[in-house]
Amino acid sequence: MDRLESPVPYGTAVSADDTHTLRYELSFPQPVERVWDAVATQEGLPGWLAVADPFVRHEGGAITLRWQNTDENGTATVAPGQVTGWGPTRLAEYTVDVHGRIRFDLQPRDGADGTRLRFTNEFTGSPACRLDCLAGWHHHFEFLAEALAGRPKDWSTWNLDRWRELRADYAAAGE
């Protein structure tokens, strides 16, 4: 099956009953420190994902992620939680309401400049929720690629069209 064109690779899902683990492996030309700033700082996260406030940057610290996009009902996700893993410039892990455990593992790319980002999201929910999250994370990683290239997301232009396309594509692929 032909997949939609995307600047980021598709994620995968493994499910056991209502527990889902989503994985993405992404490669960016920017150095680890630049990608770290995007996934693990209050200044970087809003350019592609969510406002983080509060955000206490150490294991055990409080975090609340406030998504800037909305669902089909116009509701934005607000996800309070905790920083559950922290290794500056290498590991940022947040366990939050709604989205469960969100883990960013950063490494220099093998034999090349840039960064390899391994992302894992573990949560409980329905198969429909799994598809929603696969499409949602994929779409946000497209925003991350743009933000790293100097073009953070202008949230006033947000709509659900691309998310719907990605969700249908993941469903057709049997994810």
TrEMBL record:
The record places domain Activator of Hsp90 ATPase homologue 1/2-like C-terminal at 31-148
**What Pfam families does the record tag this protein with?**
AHSA1
UniProt-recorded name of the protein: ATPase
Q: Which family does it belong to?
A: Belongs to the AHA1 family.
